[in-house]
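Please, structure for the following, as tokens.
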Amino acid sequence: MSSIRAAEAVKIVENSFRDINIAFVNELAKSFDRMNLDTVEIINGAAKCACRGHQRP
């Protein structure tokens, strides 16, 4: 890292990314439960997609 401020910004991005993903999966799980779908099966299937990674502006 070039500076402490940059390192702190990285930490904010990583924590935000994690928190958003947790909230997203929790909302999906609620929807899947209402549709009588197995959330774990769906998440495992989606995890096989090669389209993951950080987005860039």
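The mean pLDDT is 90. The helical segments are 4-34, 39-47.
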